[in-house]
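Figure 2 data, in text form.
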Amino acid sequence: MKIKTYRDLKSKDELLPLMDQAFRWPFNPRVFESLVKIDPRLKDGPVGFCAIENGHIVGFVGVLNLATKTLSGEIEHVGGIYGVATLPGYTRRGISTALMHRAHEYFKEEGYRFSFLNTSPTLIAYAFYKKLGYVDALEYPSVYKVMKAEKVKLRKTNKAVKLDLDKILRIYNKFSKDKTGFVVRDKNHLRALKKAEGLNARNFLISRNGYVVFKKDRNGVGIREIAALTTEETSKLIGLIENKTKATVYDRTVLDRNILQVYKSRGYIVQKRSHDIMMVKPLTAYASLKEAYGDRFYISGLDVF
């Protein structure tokens, strides 16, 4: 077995069946390449490591170069793992283990102290990650509300206008100023999130002191991120979202305590634990997540990888 980086592949087409069978992700190389070019988490790195046998791709581990903010306010880069997959027929042969070790080597070469990933304790992969030295780092509280159709007056969506990314960044930076973790953003980061999520202007509600990013489908409205400078503005934005559906409103990643309290006050069902968790692996002997980030570690639904 040989290990190559994603960038060294002559053709990325064989990643399609691998990703589709592992994640039901109809991987399109051209679309993914356009994301790699703008996403600061991908564009300056190897993107991922691939296991090659007899000239064919049989395994993959994606790697991200992630910017975080520490307790001291400094920017520290860390590693991120995504898209761990092995082609059926090649499992239990140590392929994912070899790829993960190569990813950790890369992170250490870059001088990173931590490697992060998202998974679920209900998955077989959870035990695999624990054997590799990962430990639970963060749980994602979630909220849900079933709307009473007779009380909802649906409002028509306003005509889409060009997004003011500078305003969104200003609000987010004020909102996250006392937070640590995955709160480092610039306009390229926002553009990459929009592209990865398939978002356009109609997925944003922006007010003077806050905004909410959402996606609507037949099941209701999922809030991907909400950032507001006051509790009143938070409640107002949630109310506007509630007026967009007669089904369900849900937010699967609520780490801000004030936002969680507003959801409670509006009658949402709150689950403090969920199937999804973040795990971390210290890459140096003295790396401590608590010492680096304290209890202010934050990530929103838009940034979960």
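Caption note: Residues 95-109 form the longest helix (15 residues).
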